[in-house]
Structure formats: structure tokens, C-alpha cells
């Protein structure tokens, strides 16, 4: 699922390629998303062309389901069910697809659309954030594995384009465009809400429960008990608009929306900054969350259609222009064999050794 798990830590046990090589490219529709990888070796991703795609690991299409625009990364449950919401305002639906592409169930969200990635908790509960295009309100919804509604929290006064994140104690965290971060108890009641002025990314949650997210021009670390600030870090240039990635040893990896990446320690102090060199007067804008592999190497995409790999010490590893470019909005997914799967423009790319 988005960020690899319900906490969105953005970290994989697999190790990515030491040097990049294009294995294959699959042409989909406009704004192809990065995929979720199934235990069955399937690759599942959506697009604003209205399709959910299932590919094999060699890039061959297995099936597609045309049901509405998909604006987030699907979430796959332990039994292989693919969960995805519709962002177009006509359908107002959330679906569970079986591995063969058939619909297991559909849930009518009643005037709401899904603009972000759902998550599936270890107990099978599905959490999604929904927005009402007419009222500009939002709701957080919890569904049982069979698609029945467990609870719905309506009291969000604006759209929610960010993915929910799950704390270790079952608290659900989600930010909204009104600048509030909401913490919901496992039963759907409000635990607390904190106004941050602006919320600009989905949250990630550490093992101890600390919440990390972007808030305008700074990243924040917040206490899970009441949302009070632990530390703030402002990038030198650009906005704090990507979900923070949580590395080992308390490290937090951040992008700036410009040409810099940052490694922060558990106290919020800078460990190192990586600056992408501008070549041939071309600007670089990091546009995706960072994905960290099992060796601590960072992978991140740009608005200009490139993939960067950065070593754990902040030194450059490699830089790979995607053949047809396109903005990278979601961090790469790493397969068990180390292949990077990333959506950019109209394509899904597989980049390996």
C-alpha cells in the first residue's frame, strides 16, 4: 500500500539496483500511479484514465478494470484483495477487487469521492479518506473486510486529499485542507484535533507513535497524546509537501519540493543535505516521497521525470532519466528482486539492475 504499510514509513527490506537499467515500460493513461505489489507477484496500479491495471512482473497486462479515475495507490490485504477508491464525482464508489479482476464488493460513499490512498490494518479493517466535491467537506471511513461500514467520522470541515495513517495503538491520523490534523480513536470518535495552519502531506507514524508530516513550509514531529509539537524542520528552499520517510535508528528523510533532500535525526537536527546538481540549466524538483531500501539507499522521483538514488551518507549513487519523462508523484515500490516500479506521466516503469 502507499508508503509500504499503514504507518507509511516508506521503507523496504529489499535492496534496489546498484546501477539503473530499464527492464520494461507499460503505457497506461494520464498520471499513472506507482503500484502496490502483491504477494502473488502481481503489480497493481491505477490511473486517471479510469482503469485499475494488473500486470505480471515481466510487464505484461493480466487484466484491467474500467470503473473510474484512480488518484492513489491501491491497498492490498493479507488475503490478496485489492482495495481502491474512485476520484471521479460520478461513481462515488469504493471497491474491493479479487486477484482475477472481478469485483468482490462495492461500497457507495454517498456524494463522496476518494482522492488519496486507502490503507488496510493488520486486522483487515480498511480506512479511507473521502471528500464531498459539492460541500467541500470530508469524512474518514472505516470498513470491515466484507465492505460493510464500521464507522464514519463526518466532522471534517474540508476536503481530505491525504491518506490516513495508523498509529501503533490503533489511532487513525489524517490531515485536511483546513489545516487540521485529526486523531481518531479505533471506534471512530475524535481523540483530538490540532490546527497546524496548513497540512501539505500525508502523515507517517513511528514505532513509538510519533507523527511526522508536512505543514506548509516546514515538517513537524508531533506527540501522539495531544498533537503538541516535538520539533519542526524547515527546508532551505521549497515546501514540505511529501510524506516523511522513516529510516532506521530514528532517522527521518524529507524532500523540499525543490532540489534538496534531507536526513534528520530523532531530535529534528540535520544530519546531511543532498542537493541535485542542475545540469544544462535544467531545474530539479523532487516531487515524490522517498523510498528507502534494505541497505539504506534512498530512491526519489522528480517533476522532470527522473529517478535519483542517494547513498545512506547523502552522497549521490545514480541518476536515471525515465525515457518518456513525466512527473513522479508517488515513491517507487521495490520488488523482492530489487526492481523499482514507478509511475510517471502515462507510463509505469520497471527499473532494475
Explain what you see.
It is a single chain. Strand 8 (93-97) and strand 9 (103-108) form a beta hairpin. Helices cover 0% and strands 41% of the residues. The chain is built from no helices and 32 strands. It has 353 residues and is mainly beta. The strands form eight sheets. A four-stranded antiparallel beta sheet has the order 1-32-31-30, with no helix packed on it. The protein has a four-stranded antiparallel beta sheet with strand order 2-3-4-5, with no helix packed on it. A four-stranded antiparallel beta sheet has the order 6-7-8-9, with no helix packed on it. Among the domains are: 10-39 and 288-353, no CATH class; 196-282, Lipocalin, CATH 2.40.128.
Share of helix among residues? Answer: under 10%
Mean pLDDT equals 95
Question: How many helix segments?
Answer: 0
Shape: globular
The biggest beta sheet, please? Answer: 4 strands, antiparallel
Unreliably modeled segments: none
Instruction: Give the class from helix and strand content and strand pairing.
Output: mainly beta
The number of strands is 32
Whole-angstrom Rg: 19 Å
Q: Strand portion, in percent?
A: 35-45%
Question: Summarize this, please?
Answer:
With 353 residues, this protein is mainly β.
Which features would summarize this protein structure in a list?
single chain; 353 residues; mainly beta; Lipocalin; four-stranded antiparallel β-sheet; globular
Per-chain topology:
Elements: E1 21-27, E2 36-37, E3 43-46, E4 51-55, E5 61-66, E6 75-76, E7 82-85, E8 93-97, E9 103-108, E10 119-120, E11 126-131, E12 138-143, E13 149-156, E14 165-166, E15 172-175, E16 180-184, E17 190-195, E18 204-205, E19 211-215, E20 218-222, E21 229-233, E22 245-246, E23 252-255, E24 260-264, E25 270-275, E26 291-292, E27 298-301, E28 306-310, E29 316-321, E30 333-334, E31 340-344, E32 347-352
Amino acid at each position: 500500500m502507499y508508503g509500504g504499510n499503514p504507518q507509511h514509513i516508506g521503507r523496504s527490506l529489499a535492496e534496489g539496483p546498484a546501477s539503473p537499467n530499464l527492464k520494461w515500460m507499460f503505457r497506461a493513461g494520464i498520471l499513472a500511479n506507482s503500484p502496490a505489489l502483491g504477494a502473488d507477484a502481481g503489480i497493481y496500479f491505477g490511473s486517471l484514465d479510469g482503469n485499475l491495471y494488473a500486470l505480471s512482473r515481466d510487464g505484461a497486462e493480466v487484466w484491467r478494470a474500467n470503473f473510474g479515475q484512480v488518484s492513489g495507490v491501491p491497498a492490498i490485504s493479507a488475503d490478496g484483495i485489492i482495495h481502491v477508491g474512485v476520484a471521479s464525482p460520478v461513481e462515488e464508489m469504493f471497491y474491493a477487487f479479487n486477484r482475477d479482476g472481478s469485483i468482490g464488493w462495492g461500497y457507495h460513499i454517498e456524494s463522496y469521492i476518494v482522492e488519496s490512498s486507502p490503507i488496510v490494518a493488520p486486522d483487515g479493517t480498511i480506512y479511507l479518506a473521502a471528500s464531498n466535491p459539492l460541500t467541500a467537506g470530508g469524512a474518514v471511513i472505516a470498513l470491515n473486510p466484507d465492505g460493510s461500514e464500521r464507522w464514519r467520522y463526518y466532522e471534517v470541515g474540508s476536503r481530505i486529499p491525504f491518506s490516513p495513517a495508523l498509529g501503533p495503538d490503533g489511532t487513525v491520523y489524517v490531515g485536511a485542507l483546513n489545516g487540521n490534523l485529526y486523531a481518531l480513536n479505533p471506534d471512530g470518535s475524535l481523540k483530538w484535533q490540532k490546527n497546524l495552519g496548513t497540512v501539505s502531506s500525508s502523515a507517517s507514524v513511528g514505532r513509538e507513535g510519533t507523527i511526522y508530516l508536512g505543514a506548509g513550509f516546514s515538517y513537524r514531529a508531533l506527540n501522539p497524546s495531544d498533537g503538541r509539537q516535538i520539533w519542526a524542520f524547515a527546508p532551505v528552499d521549497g515546501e514540505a509537501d511529501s510524506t516523511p520517510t522513516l529510516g532506521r535508528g530514528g532517522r527521518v528523510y524529507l524532500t523540499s519540493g525543490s532540489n534538496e533532500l534531507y536526513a534528520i535525526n530523532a531530535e529534528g537536527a540535520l544530519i546531511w543535505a543532498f542537493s541535485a546538481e542542475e545540469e544544462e540549466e535544467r531545474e530539479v524538483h523532487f516531487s515524490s516521497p522517498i523510498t528507502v531500501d534494505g541497505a539504506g539507499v534512498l530512491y526519489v522521483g522528480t517533476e522532470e521525470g527522473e529517478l535519483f538514488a542517494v547513498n545512506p551518507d547523502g552522497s549521490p549513487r545514480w541518476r536515471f532519466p525515465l525515457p518518456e519523462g513525466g512527473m513522479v508523484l508517488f515513491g517507487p515500490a521495490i520488488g523482492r528482486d530489487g526492481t523499482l516500479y514507478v509511475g510517471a506521466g502515462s507510463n509505469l516503469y520497471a527499473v532494475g539492475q
